[in-house]
Amino acid sequence: MTDTLHTAPDPAVDDAPLPPSTLHQPRLPRWAAPAFAVLSAGLGAGIGLAAGLASRIQWGLIAALVFVVLSYTVAGAVEGRRQARDRLATSLVWVCFLLALLPLASMLWETVARGSQVMDGYFLSHSMQGVITLKPGGGAYHALLGTLEQIGLTVLMAAPAGVLTAIYLVEYGGGRLAKAVTFFVDVMTGIPSIVAGLFILSSWILVLGFGYSGFAGALALTILMLPIVVRSTEEMLKLVPNELREASLALGVPKWRTIVKVVLPTAIGGITTGVMLAIARVAGETAPILLLVFGAQHINENPFEGPQSSLPYYVFEQWSLGNEASYDRAWAAALLLIALVMALNLVARLIARWKAPTTGR
Prior knowledge:
Helices cover 71% and strands 0% of the residues. By secondary structure, the chain is mainly α.
């Protein structure tokens, strides 16, 4: 049996200095970043005034550069190079985020500021029939009605076809037909809106002899909306666990009933969100509407016969008139269109969070 070896402690090793620990490294307080931002804004404005720069956008760019340099320099002096690099990356991310957000915020501010001057109950309940375009007055009721009818027809055509196509690709597809469908869906995703409008114009109006109408515009919007619905629904169906399908099939439930009762209810929130986002995508399309609905100053409640207007067409029409009254109406219609798209996105968010109530005892 061997004896246990005991070594005597080495005084030289015990007295050696320990490496500095990063746990006790000084840290900047939490208010340092906001303080840097305020100081950078002041320095940016001061440098801009001293340099004779009149644009506040230039002041903001200078302030952003000062913020990044100041954060890195102070963090390097207090926290060390490692934390300084981390703060540099964080500062660059925040600056890029604000630079990307600035055009959107500016557009929303300008639209709300100028569109709210005309937006009222009269504007929402009257058309442009009999209104002198050089003078204030008139409304966008006919354009709003046309947009709602055209979008409604587009959803009725594109949503069922897109969902059924996605179900085929995910649940049944796998052969040559599925590959061909996938290829054409990919091609349709990149089709410019003007090409879709020209296709409907040449086939529906020039060849078949139908007139300009809201339905013709809805056909072009369907071409644009269909691949978006297919792709979004396909991704949502792929997220459904295969265990749910296998459990249902193991109980003897037919595949079609499994899809209807298990797969679709599980993915219904994501599918509806994808459809709503596709609606928001095509609601602002202008090129197909310019070619196919032809525009109208009066209220046309029948989307299948006669020219009809829409909000994108109304904005283009009023802005092209080139006077202050028409500019105000164009801004108000743009604000109405943004509000409509935002409402659709809000509905999509609410439906995505909706949970089907559980039943049973």
